[in-house]
Design brief:
Elements (H helix, E strand, L loop, with lengths): L5 H13 L14 E9 L6 E10 L8 E3 L4 E8 L1 E6 L5 E4 L3 E4 L4 E7 L6 E10 L6 E3 L2
Antiparallel strand pairs: 1-2, 2-9, 3-8, 3-10, 4-7, 4-9, 5-6, 5-8
Length: 141
């Protein structure tokens, strides 16, 4: 059985997702579009999987406040534009192209939105979680 270090696997997934070339859709939606990019088992961490998705925000768009799967560690990397995020009781922060943030398992993501009303934004979300722990995202009620 071949072993792959988890960090190298994450770097590979980021590179694959950076090469993702679907154009931003011309939308008038005030909500995000989530496109799955990769899903697979982590071969050297039994019971763990990695899931990636590209989240696209048209100008002024936002995601509803939400939680992720209870076992999910989330790494978010801004591919383009600027994204405003608030996790748990931390301050709301704006992350620009090339910047990243994380969410611990069980975190509450109260703000996730495009920081611009005129330019689109895109981020790569990388989830490391227990295999089969779904749904990935649950909006607040």
């Amino acid at each position: 059985m071949r072993r792959y270090p988890a960090v190298s696997l994450i770097k590979a997934m980021v590179l694959v997702s950076l090469s993702y070339s679907a154009p931003l859709r011309a939308e008038t939606s005030r909500h995000e579009t989530v496109t799955p990019a990769f899903q697979g088992l982590i071969p050297n961490i039994q019971g763990k999987s990695i899931v990636t998705a590209v989240v696209e925000y048209p100008p002024g768009a936002k995601s509803p406040s939400h939680h992720h799967a209870s076992s999910a560690f989330v790494y978010a990397y801004v591919l383009s534009g600027a994204v405003r995020s608030q996790v748990n009781e931390g301050p709301a922060q704006v992350y620009r192209t090339g910047e990243s943030f994380t969410e611990a398992p069980g975190a509450h993501h109260s703000i996730s939105e495009n920081a611009s009303d005129t330019e689109p934004a895109r981020l790569l979300a990388v989830f490391i979680l227990d295999t089969g722990d779904h749904p990935l995202t649950t909006p607040d009620r």
